[in-house]
Amino acid sequence: MMRLVRFALVGCLGFVVDVAILYPVAWLGAGWVIGRLCSWLGAATCTWAVNRRFTFAMAMAPSWREWGAYLIANSAGGVVNYATYVALIEAVPATAAHPYLAVGAGSVAGLLVNFTMSLRFVFSKA
After folding, report:
1. I need a surface site. Which of 32, 76, 99, 113 has the fewest CB within 10 A?
2. What percent of the chain has pLDDT over 90?
């Protein structure tokens, strides 16, 4: 249970990184939908780095392979996250006006999927 709490806390950091990347990328012309793909990659990279030490206490050095496995494993939750985000941006005026609300809803929607995939397939030696 403690790992899930830590994973959720790291997810809060990921939310901040996601929004911090999303807004400038969207304003530079990518828009809210394409911009979110860029911001998700940045947030996923950040959460991988923090989760591997804080949540799963990995002692071995990080590797490109582990990062790739994390991105692939968390793509399932990423799809849930992104689908929730796009649905809210397209259908709910409040989230279209304030996209960070949709980012947060998407993050919560993908949390358990990402935790399970990370625990079973990326950090199973922890």
Report:
1. 76
2. 90
